[in-house]
Write a structure and sequence with these properties.
Elements: E1 3-9, E2 12-20, H1 24-41, E3 63-69, E4 75-82, H2 84-90, H3 95-98, E5 99-100, E6 111-119, H4 127-143, E7 147-155, H5 161-173, E8 183-184, H6 203-211, E9 214-215, E10 220-222, E11 227-235, H7 241-247
Parallel strand pairs: 6-7
Antiparallel strand pairs: 1-2, 2-3, 3-4, 4-6, 5-8, 7-11, 9-11, 10-11
């Protein structure tokens, strides 16, 4: 997989390419970016064997999707992808730590988990996330898997009120069928929060919903990242046709 694209980032045109990591150096570059975003920028408490890199037990079992700035060769965006066979070998998905996924048990053999999504602070105008989505779409087609799951995070610098507002909004239009519900192991205390009337929805969650994803239940609280995490599920058969046309064309 290799796609290239030229996008305007700010006032400067940048050229990018997206591909799966094929070396230990590639993976470490992704882990370095994750550290910068999650630990340095967001203040997450990461249990890692090597400070400066975000490393956990899942990394060795995942594929790592990377977007690089072609001018500098710097990794500026990444997604971690855990396939069903690898998840079975390691004993489950990362999402199993945050949610009871019993009702999705029958989908596990066709389900891919996305995680650790992040984009460098200087590259967040849209081009990088577009390439990441294109790379994921191509991966799903080639691997012939049918479902994407993942935890979509909402920052809690305001104590969780924005997250509560997002939940109350998305449950009206985007809640999954009852047979696909997930249940948080550490629920966000929604009853104790004042829902923001016009919440600010993170771009990643907007992207999932526009693509046709469901929210599978109430948010969980992740104390290490201090985020409220929504369980998301996208059935590829429900992928928004506009997204499919854009992301699955041979050259973007």
């Amino acid at each position: 997989m290799l796609r290239t694209n030229t996008q305007a980032e700010g006032r400067v045109k940048k050229s990018f390419h997206v591909a799966m990591a094929d070396s230990e150096g590639d993976v470490r570059a992704a882990q370095r970016l994750r550290w910068k975003v999650f630990a340095e920028e967001m203040g997450a408490h990461l249990a890692t064997p090597e400070p400066g890199l975000d490393i956990d037990m899942y990394d060795a079992h995942c594929e790592h999707l990377l977007v690089r700035d072609r001018d500098t060769d710097e990794v500026v965006g990444t997604y971690r992808v855990l396939g069903p066979d690898a998840a079975q070998r390691i004993g489950g998905f990362y999402s199993d730590q945050e949610f009871d996924l019993t009702r999705l048990q029958h989908l596990r053999g066709r389900m891919v988990e996305l995680g650790r999504s992040c984009v460098h602070t200087d590259y967040r105008s849209g081009g990088v996330i577009t390439l990441l989505w294109a790379g994921l779409a191509e991966y799903m087609i080639k691997s012939r898997h049918d479902y994407l799951i993942g935890c979509a995070s909402i920052g809690m610098s305001d104590g969780g009120h924005n997250a509560a507002g997002i939940w109350h909004n998305v449950r009206e239009k985007h809640l999954s069928p009852v047979e696909w519900r997930a249940f948080p192991r550490c629920p966000l205390p929604l009853d104790a929060l004042d829902s923001v009337a016009a919440p600010v929805v993170p771009p990643l969650i907007k992207g999932y919903l526009r693509a046709g994803a469901y929210v599978c239940g109430e948010p969980a609280w992740d104390p290490d990242f201090n985020t409220a995490d929504l369980p998301m599920l996208l059935a590829m058969k429900n992928l928004n046709p506009a997204y499919a046309k854009h992301f699955l064309q041979p050259d973007i």
